[in-house]
Structures are given as C-alpha cells and as structure tokens.
Amino acid sequence: MAFTGVRNYSHAQPDKTGILITNLGTPDAPETGAVRRYLREFLSDHRVVEIPKAIWWFILNGIILLLRPARSAKNYRTVWTERGSPLLYHTADQCAAIRQYMQGRYGDDVVVEFAMRYGNPAITDVLQKMQDQGVRRLLVLPMYPQYSATTTASTFDAIAHDFAQRRWIPELRFINHYHDFPPYIEAMAEHIEAFQKINGSPEKLVLSYHGIPKRNLLEGDPYHCECYKTSRLLAERLGLPREQVLTTFQSRFGKQEWLKPYTDATMKQLGAEGVGSLQVFCPGFPADCLETIEEIAEENKHYFEEAGGKNFAYIPALNAEPHHIHALTALLEQHLKGWHPLGNSDKELTVAEANAKGA
Ligand SMILES: C=CC1=C(C)c2cc3[nH]c(cc4nc(cc5[nH]c(cc1n2)c(C)c5CCC(=O)O)C(CCC(=O)O)=C4C)c(C)c3C=C
Ligand SMILES: [Fe+2]
Ligand SMILES: [Fe+2]
C-alpha cells in the first residue's frame, strides 16, 4: 500500500498548529436518499452499535435503512433552514468565531477548521486540507463535553484511521472531554440565568442528555458519571436545590434498555403531576440540532402538555454565543500549552516579537 506523502514540502515553510473542531455530522439534505447515506455511515460504526457485525448488517440493511430514512427525512425537514442543517451551520459559526479569536492571538501560525465524524465535511478531507497548509501539530476538539465511546472514541478512530494512511503524521493532541471544565459550567450557568431573566424561573429544570445503551455503562463507559457530574456542578453554580433539577436521557434507538430516567417518560410524569412550569436544557449538545429542536422543543413539549403540564420552555444550546466561544478558546489554549510560541519551531521568538504577536 502507498502512503499519502506531504507534497511540495519546503524547509522554509513554517510549521503550523491546526485546531480541528469536530461534531457528529448531519445529512447533506433533508431527503430520504441523503438521510439513508448518512444513517448508513453512522449506524455501520461498531462504536455506535455494538451488536455482532454480521447480525447487525442484516438488521441495518434489511429493516432500518428501508424504513427509517423517510421518517427521519420528514423530521429533518421541520428543522432545516436556508443555511441547511442547524448542526452544520452552528458548528460552522463556532469554528469561525474560534478562528477569529485564534488569528487575533497567533496570526497565521494557527489554522482552525471543522469536520464531521459522519457525512460532510469529512474528517479525512479536512485533515488533507490542513496538511496542505503546513499543519505539523494538530489539536482535536470533539464537541462532546461528556466522554462516550460511541462519540469521542469513534472520533479518535476516524483520526487514527486517517493517520494510518499517511507517511508523515502530525504531532497529535486530542481532547477527551470537558464535562467539568469551569468555563464550560460558567458559560451554561450564565446562559441559563440570562434566559430566566427574561422568561422567569421554572418549578423544575430538566437537564436532558443524549442516551446510550445501559449495557455500555455496565461495560465501563464513563458517560453516565460525566453527565451526572456536569448536572451537579451546574446546579451548584446556579444555587438550585437538588429536588428542582432533574437529569434525564433522550433519543433512544432500538429495543434494548438505555440510560434512565428517560426524558420522554419524565415529561409525561411531570405533566401528570401538574408541574406548573418546566424548562429543559441539554448540556451535552453544544449546538442545536434535530435532537434538541425537533425532539425536545416539539415532541417532548407535546408529551408534557398532553399529560397536563403547563408552561414548557426549551433553553437553546450555547451555539456560537460569546460565553461559549470564551469557554472553548480557554479549553483549547489549555491544551495548546507547550506549543507556544506557535509558528516555526526552528525559530525562537524574542520577548519583543512574542509580545508583538500577542503570544
Ligand atoms: C444508534 C445508537 C446511537 C447512539 C449510541 C448515539 C449516541 C449519541 N449521539 C449523540 C449526538 C447526536 N445524535 C444525533 C442523531 C442521531 N443519533 C442516533 C443514534 C445514536 N446516537 C441516530 C439514529 C440519529 C439520527 C437522527 C434520526 O434518524 O433520528 C444528533 C443530531 C444530528 C443532526 O443531524 O442534527 C446528535 C448531535 C451523542 C452526544 C451520543 C452519545 C453520547
Ligand atoms: Fe445520537
Ligand atoms: Fe455513574
């Protein structure tokens, strides 16, 4: 096998640092064919579905990819905008804001790009683009605050798979999680406080995270613990008593048991108990997407109200808000330490030069 080499290398070329922001990915269009292509790639990942591969191949191709794409496409159409899928454009906006900050600090020494684990822009294409720009040090930030093998490790697999084809791999740093990073907790707290200043404080605040199969927890995935820690730190920072804040898990897939309590069952229960006002925030989703806009703000709102609940409000994700960008750049800078001064590693900057660069 031939490895991909570095083309047009010149010794005069400065070494650059690359920051790669990744998220899950989304279909290219809210249509059955595009959704099927996306779901095929996503659901063929053994990190996501751990059922033995041969058995799963028949279920996936014989049932799921025949039935689900049309239904999912219909859901995607309800959230699609002129700028495309919310997950895609929020990620693009986050990347642009982080790039602006990093360029202000380090100029052209740092390259900031984003990629998606499934679909487009594909990780391997973006890594090629970064290599072509002279990136020799790579910092990867998967936008999953809470570690899970299904998401974080799968992203690592994709980076490793790409590197396995390259002759000259860059120096690598990979952010595993940031579920308890103080600026992230602070950004969420300030965001929730700002929302409540306008909309009032609710009787109950539900913190809803994407679920994973319960078996993954029993097999040693730390995701469940990290979600509870995020909730505890956020509730403490907001000064809310324990009974006012609930942690739940949404977006089940398939027949097996997933992490409980389930968000939908909780909505029905709180509605039936006659809860007067409820706010839902999703700390595990740094960007609004199908799972927040359609599943929480529409479907689960309906469950709550149908069961008798009043005043449901969904608190939007942090998206590209300044508080969020501040938290993310603080996280990135923590992980860039020792790579300063960014730029040509052969050339030491004088103090005056470093100051002039703002490094
Ligand atoms: C099949 C099992 C799934 C696991 C395990 C899973 C974990 C997981 N997912 C996210 C974040 C997102 N998931 C999104 C959509 C989505 N998730 C699954 C399945 C699993 N996720 C499916 C089949 C879908 C597609 C939508 C559908 O057909 O209903 C999204 C939104 C994507 C978008 O385009 O908007 C996000 C984000 C996390 C964080 C996670 C584990 C911790
Ligand atoms: Fe998911
Ligand atoms: Fe736990």
TrEMBL record:
<dbReference type="Pfam" id="PF00762">
    <property type="entry name" value="Ferrochelatase"/>
</dbReference>
<keyword id="KW-0350">Heme biosynthesis</keyword>
<comment type="function">
    <text>Catalyzes the ferrous insertion into protoporphyrin IX.</text>
</comment>
<dbReference type="InterPro" id="IPR033659">
    <property type="entry name" value="Ferrochelatase_N"/>
</dbReference>
<keyword id="KW-0627">Porphyrin biosynthesis</keyword>
<keyword id="KW-0479">Metal-binding</keyword>
<dbReference type="InterPro" id="IPR033644">
    <property type="entry name" value="Ferrochelatase_C"/>
</dbReference>
<keyword id="KW-0963">Cytoplasm</keyword>
<feature type="binding site">
    <location>
        <position position="291"/>
    </location>
    <ligand>
        <name>Fe(2+)</name>
    </ligand>
</feature>
<keyword id="KW-0408">Iron</keyword>
<protein>
    <recommendedName>
        <fullName>Ferrochelatase</fullName>
        <ecNumber>4.98.1.1</ecNumber>
    </recommendedName>
</protein>
<keyword id="KW-0456">Lyase</keyword>
<comment type="similarity">
    <text>Belongs to the ferrochelatase family.</text>
</comment>
<feature type="binding site">
    <location>
        <position position="210"/>
    </location>
    <ligand>
        <name>Fe(2+)</name>
    </ligand>
</feature>
<dbReference type="InterPro" id="IPR019772">
    <property type="entry name" value="Ferrochelatase_AS"/>
</dbReference>
<comment type="pathway">
    <text>Porphyrin-containing compound metabolism; protoheme biosynthesis; protoheme from protoporphyrin-IX: step 1/1.</text>
</comment>
<dbReference type="InterPro" id="IPR001015">
    <property type="entry name" value="Ferrochelatase"/>
</dbReference>
